[in-house]
Amino acid sequence: MDIRKDFLPLSRPWLDDEEIDAVAASIRSGWITSGPKTAELEERFRALTGAPHAVAVSSATAGLHIVLAALGIGEGDEVVTPSMTFASTVNQIALRGARPVFVDSDYGTLQALPGEVERAITPRTRAVIPVHFAGAPADLDPIRAAAGRAGVPVIEDAAHAVGTSYKGKPAGGHGDIAVYSFHPIKNITTGEGGMVTCSDGELAKKLRLLRFHGIERDAWKRYGKGGTPHYDIREPGYKYNLTDLQAAIGVVQMRKLERMNGRRAALAARYLDGLRGVGGIDLPESVAYPHEHSWHLFIVKVTSMDRDAFLGRLADYNIGTGLHFPPCHLLSYVRERFGTKEGDLPECERAGARILSLPLFPGMADADVDYVCAAIREILPENAA
Ligand SMILES: Cc1ncc(COP(=O)(O)O)c(C=O)c1O
Fold first, then answer.
1. Among 64, 75, 226, 332, which one is most buried in terms of CB atoms within 10 A?
2. Whole-prediction pTM
3. What percent of the chain has a predicted confidence (pLDDT) above 90?
4. Ligand 1 neighbourhood includes 179 CB (under 6 angstroms)
5. Which CATH code fits 17-253?
6. Closest-CA residue to 91 (of 338, 260, 350)
């Protein structure tokens, strides 16, 4: 086959004149940091998820940080989470002085195994953080039941899950707390950004304080007509607010969400069709419970050649790839600090050695998917004519 001239990236945000106009309007309004647009994006998230509270933040990482801080998780505490997740979660647990306790994931779906979550819980457990991996939901019912028996909250890592639902209800609408990401690779983007949703009003209040220095009232209200510039701080906070410039992009992206996720689903279906029966790779398996998949990522596993060599061969075809994720329990600092090692989580490790993410973004053409499928067939020796 002919090698394409242009590079096909792993991802590209779907931004057009609507987002440009929204940012221009925000600039013209004279208020560019957190303000009415941020409040509007929070309102849209409450409507999307059904969660009573939504707190916009500068990233999902920032959101995870203030959630752990607000729950008072620290030295001597344990937090249960899959190893097959982004390091951001584990970093935040470690930075609080707590210990991540890792659970294995299913090889086929890459979702945390609920039975393992139950086994990982100890009297020191203070929270469970499942991940809605690649846009399919984690099996929340048994995970929530196990956490409930231990009396600890579930913090859904919904970084991949804007538009995902589990048993008919959106991710984040099931219970305690959920954290979303608006990084440019995600289903909606604000450049960088994130959202925390939660059911508890007191927790939401704490999150709002921790997100902005510990100051009670929003700056746009203090500096607006009729506001007063005074403030007091009872507990110091961070600087993790989302700006109106970013939120203006987010509001437009939310309007486009169904269209964008619909396109992602169509492209994923085309990949599944195009790669069915191709030897040397395992395709993503569907979770067994009712769900809506937001197709954040399309992850395959290469079984007949070295994964890194395969990534290199795809690069030769001008195809970008991703690696979501190297297992967290095998990261150097995690091994050193928490004594984890190879062999601890066999399924996650088996998957971790083989996974790669193929290009998937709403602006992709059907022909791009066909090109990637044809390249894979050509690269993997099993499929030689
Ligand atoms: C599973 C998961 N959790 C958390 C994050 C952190 O998101 P952010 O980049 O918004 O901090 C990511 C980002 O890639 C992620 O994939």
1. 64
2. 0.96
3. 93
4. no
5. 3.40.640.10
6. 338
